[in-house]
Amino acid sequence: MKILLTGAFGNIGTSTLNNFISKGSSDIKLSCFDIKNELNEKKASVLPENISIFWGDLRNTADVDKAVNGQDAVIHLAFIIPPLSESKPDFAKEINITGTKNIIEAIKKQNRDIKMIFASSVSVFGPAGPGKEPPRKASDEVIASDNYTANKIECENMLKSSGIKWIITRFGSVPPLAISGDFNPMLFEISLDSRVEFVHTMDVGLALANAAFCDECVNKILLIGGGKKCQIYQSEFISKFLEATGIGMLPESAFSKKPYYTDWMDTGESQALLKYQRYTFDDYIEEFKKLVGFKRYFIKLLSPLIKKSLLAKSPYYKK
Fold this sequence. Notes:
Layout: E1 2-6, H1 11-23, E2 29-34, H2 38-44, E3 52-55, H3 61-68, E4 73-76, H4 84-87, H5 89-110, E5 115-121, H6 147-160, E6 165-171, E7 195-197, H7 201-211, E8 220-224, E9 231-233, H8 234-245, H9 268-274, H10 281-292, H11 295-311
Helix pairs in contact: 1-7, 3-5, 5-6, 7-9, 8-10
């Protein structure tokens, strides 16, 4: 089976690649599609030689047609996310909507039964709040609450009306298992009492890898989350994460009080079909601590300065 993965070198793309590689099946022929840059080239250089690489731009139909040609399934992960999707809405729309449309059209040109698996998000349900009791279900109403969710919803609708085989996967919260020097200020927009369903990046990768072979999943919307043991509140999520880094928790006043578009989900159907739930949030925290390693002690020493720098990015915090 020939499978194309767009956005192959991002957080979830890397996890999906690793799940396919771990299968070690000679019946799977993988191809990666992504933007050519130094970081992506470095990631591509360590892949097995039998994995093909297509460097290109989703906005370029020739690039997309070349990559899709001869594939049996396309797992589409490449997407502009917040905060860039909000600060550059026109650019995001070109990549997100035009890019998705180009893949759909490329699949149609093949005149073959090519399955397209589209990565969406729990955020399409809109902000949680009064009258929205958990868990979210795939059949629940979707609401565009920003550029990102509007793009996701439009792409979902394009797929459902396309006439091709599709699977829509809506992810919960999928933090990367990697150390980054950047702190996303969007985290301040999530109120500490928000419901969050964590899902390990490798579990998402397994779900996508299994979806490529799941005929019963075709024309279904599947919610991808860690399950009941991964249903937590943002206060636990952010405090354990910041403690794991060595920084420590920030003041409650640094965070928004408004409802945010995260929530717990009903993942019964997706788990029954894809059998991917393996790791809990606490498993992730222990992995992250090991990844940080001895650096954690130096970060602890510098935590007052780091906290001051982080709090300067919060629009809610007042000294």
